[in-house]
Amino acid sequence: MSLDDEAVARLYREHATALRRFVRAATSNADQVEDVVQETILRVWKRGPETENMRGYLYQTARHVIIDGYRRRSRRPEETGWGEDEPAIEEDQFDRLLLRVVMEEALARISTDHRNIILALHYQRLTAAEAAQSLGIPLGTVKSRAFYAAKALRSVLDEMGVGQS
Q: 109-165, what's its fold?
């Protein structure tokens, strides 16, 4: 196996599963999912970017591959293999999807206690008192954990390169 083959294989091993999950959320066509993942890996490998946030760069590239495929299908509807029966997905939807995948990954990297507080307060939209009751912890603990959870999440997002230009 050449160095180039090994680099592509390593990129695929490390990121293909997360990319599949990201692409699968945008399309239900299994053939398209694998095509987009492979095209994304190849595009990123050819460019050889030096980035601390490879996963984010891969997601952004996958987004472009999906949009390119949609545009090709729009211009040439007779082309097969891209799931003609699927509804068109707007760029907004990809941005929301990308944000959701990035947030899921970031939340998975923080402690369970911090994740539970963020989910309760920001996703379930519970008040601090409701979160305390739901989680079975004192109100003061909810407030303290909320502060440290936000700090931990911000740190993880910074590590992932989110919000950095």
A: Arc Repressor Mutant, subunit A (1.10.10)
